[in-house]
Amino acid sequence: MSTFKAPPKKNLGQHFLSDRSYIDRIVMAVNPKPGDRLVEIGPGQGAITFPLLKKHGELTVIEFDRDLITPLMEASEGVGRLTIIHKDVLQVDFSRLAGDEGPLRLVGNLPYNISSPILFHALEHAGAVRDMHFMLQKEVVDRMASGPGSKVYGRLSVMLQAYCTVTSLFDVPPGAFRPPPKVDSAVVRLVPRPAAEIGIADPALFERIVRDAFGQRRKTLRNALQQVCTGADIEAAGLRPDARAEQLEVAEFRQLATYLGSLPPGARPA
Ligand code: SAM
Known about the structure:
Bound molecules: S-adenosylmethionine
Number of helices: 12
Strand content: 15-25%
CATH superfamily of the largest domain: Vaccinia Virus protein VP39
Oligomer: single chain
Structural class: alpha/beta
Helix content: 25-40%
Number of domains: 2
Distance between the termini: 60 Å
Radius of gyration: 21 Å
Number of strands: 9
Shape: elongated
């Protein structure tokens, strides 16, 4: 049997989880049930993969590092049915992967250098995803889960919370990994909201409002959103033009997007 011989690759964000207690906590948080379609992003040397496979019997993993493919396959023999997709996760069409067989449950100790692109990629396929349990930099998880008034409340918080419920589960120190990363980590659970609950008719308009509003977070909405709408529009949507983005609830961003989207074509943001 070949083992995992290649040294960790920095450019692929390889920090392998080695503390059994945190691995167990992740498996407990995922709590797979018969019939669940588990997909792990970045299995690495299998720290989370094999406990999950043992518990659930089958698992699909997406790994970009070719040096890990054969060792993963060999190590899975006798443990369970492991399907390996050797690809960049950003090129994987989760909707296609889910097919007609039910939504996916995504799990992963994500490569931190591309964690935000992975989150937004998963959001694009939110209809094919039942939930996500991800290990990320704690600083990113804090931003994802924060609310109005917090210094770290921003674009990431609003975009994710508009489409998912976000729950920070627990923190993980650098010493739990080999090699240890420079920062603290945390595990977060994301559960995509049902389409009817999201209530965003024009996702591109919503995204633009959020991006511009936080692009200049010290400015009032009236000034930050100059390219999108007028102060009168903001008022007509039921919001204060002199408020700042960091004071607005997710629902208020949605309210503004709904109002602007309902304007006649000439008055709507281009
Ligand atoms: N799950 C393992 C663990 O907890 O020990 C490894 C986690 S390590 C932080 C991230 C993993 O993602 C590595 O195995 C790395 O090779 C893989 N990876 C990095 N970029 C990737 C990409 N674009 N697509 C798929 N996997 C990727």
